[in-house]
């Protein structure tokens, strides 16, 4: 891993990046790796020494790490803070570092995971949060033999705005919000983990054989669906944009009926962006799936 400091930030931040505290221990996969794309996990392993991380891009990650100090300082007698658990399934060791376990009066556990995140993520809860916390619940019940009764995300909202809270529907009321997460049945958790282990096991074998890794899904790429634009020949801006091709086709036919002499309209299909690949995936330049996607976009340019 290569640490850069393109914007000449204080050395303190550089030092924090160079002295990471995270470790998945002896586990083959951490909970966050388990829910990640097998392609991304394998590409990271193959190119870890070449990957560049700029300090400016990791500021909020550093802040998230600092939150754990707050947890330690503020814990009660019934709190278990930052405990890493390991369990085995199908020959694979799975681990998870749980931010906070609260021991309830009835002996059951509540699991809290702290996230430093944006308001948009809070308003549009991520499926990964549900997946991660249910893996934690599986670990706690398997390792400790106690029942987990509740899962919660404690979101620290880095871009919270008092003005937006006053005027926007569904906007978080405060810069910290506790979000209840659906707790799956024990059987469903077990099957989910086995399915994920199988996917990662297959991807590892594929990588060892030098074959093409399984492709990321649209959900894993945070892919936005395509839209259909009605264009007037000679114009740069769309006359209208539609989510459904059927709606765009009707609109195009209506325009053609009322078009003046010399006016020509046509349908343009605009591929959805792959937000994660283009902005947040550190291995995208090593990914043949992403490179093929970029080439196809270039080929569609006029």
Notes on the protein architecture:
By secondary structure, the chain is an alpha/beta fold. The protein has helices at 11-18, 31-34, 38-47, 59-73, 119-123, 127-144, 162-167, 186-209, 245-258, 275-280, 288-299, and strands at 2-4, 29-30, 52-54, 79-89, 92-103, 109-117, 148-157, 176-181, 227-232, 240-242, 265-270. The chain folds into 2 domains: 2-209, Lambda Exonuclease, Chain A; 227-299, no CATH class. The protein is built from 11 helices and 11 strands. The strands form 3 sheets. Strands 2, 4, 5, 6, 7 and 8 form a 6-stranded mixed sheet that branches. Strands 10-9-11 form a 3-stranded antiparallel sheet, covered by helices on one side. It is globular and about 80 Å long.
Question: How is the topology of this model organized?
Answer:
Elements: E1 2-4, H1 11-18, E2 29-30, H2 31-34, H3 38-47, E3 52-54, H4 59-73, E4 79-89, E5 92-103, E6 109-117, H5 119-123, H6 127-144, E7 148-157, H7 162-167, E8 176-181, H8 186-209, E9 227-232, E10 240-242, H9 245-258, E11 265-270, H10 275-280, H11 288-299
Parallel strand pairs: 1-3, 2-5, 6-7
Antiparallel strand pairs: 4-5, 5-6, 7-8, 9-10, 9-11
Helix pairs in contact: 3-8, 6-8
Mean pLDDT value: 91
Name of the CATH architecture of the largest domain: Alpha-Beta Complex
Number of strands: 11
The percentage of residues in β strands lies in 15-25%
Outline of the structure:
The protein has 302 residues and is of the alpha/beta class. The protein is 40% helix and 24% strand.
Brief descriptors of the model:
Lambda Exonuclease, Chain A; 302 residues; three-stranded antiparallel beta sheet; alpha/beta; 24% strand; six-stranded mixed beta sheet; globular
């Amino acid at each position: 891993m290569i640490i850069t400091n393109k914007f000449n930030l204080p050395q303190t931040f550089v030092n924090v990046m160079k002295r990471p505290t995270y470790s998945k221990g002896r586990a083959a996969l951490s909970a966050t790796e388990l829910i990640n794309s097998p392609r991304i996990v394998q590409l990271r392993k193959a190119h870890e020494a070449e990957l560049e991380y700029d300090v400016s891009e990791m500021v909020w990650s550093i802040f998230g790490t600092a939150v754990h100090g707050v947890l330690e300082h503020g814990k009660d007698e019934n709190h278990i803070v930052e405990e890493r658990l390991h369990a085995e399934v199908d020959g694979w060791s799975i681990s998870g570092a749980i931010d906070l376990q609260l021991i309830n009066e009835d002996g059951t556990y509540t699991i809290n995971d702290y996230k430093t995140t944006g308001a948009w993520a809070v308003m549009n809860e991520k499926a990964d949060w549900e997946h991660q916390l249910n893996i934690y619940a599986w670990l706690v019940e398997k390792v400790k033999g106690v029942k987990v009764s509740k899962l919660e995300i404690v979101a620290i909202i880095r871009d919270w705005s008092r003005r937006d809270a006053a005027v926007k529907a569904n906007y978080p009321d405060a810069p910290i919000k506790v979000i209840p997460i659906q707790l799956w049945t024990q059987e469903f958790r077990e099957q989910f983990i086995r399915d994920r282990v199988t996917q990662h096991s297959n991807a590892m074998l594929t990588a060892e054989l030098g074959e093409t890794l399984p492709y990321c899904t649209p959900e894993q790429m945070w892919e936005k669906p395509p839209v259909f634009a009605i264009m007037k020949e000679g114009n740069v801006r769309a006359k209208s944009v539609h989510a459904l091709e059927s709606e765009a086709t009707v609109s195009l036919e209506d325009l053609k009926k009322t078009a003046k002499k010399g006016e020509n309209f046509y349908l343009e299909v605009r591929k959805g962006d792959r937000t994660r690949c283009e902005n947040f995936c550190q291995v995208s330049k090593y990914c043949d799936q992403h490179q093929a996607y970029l080439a196809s976009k270039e080929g569609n340019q006029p």
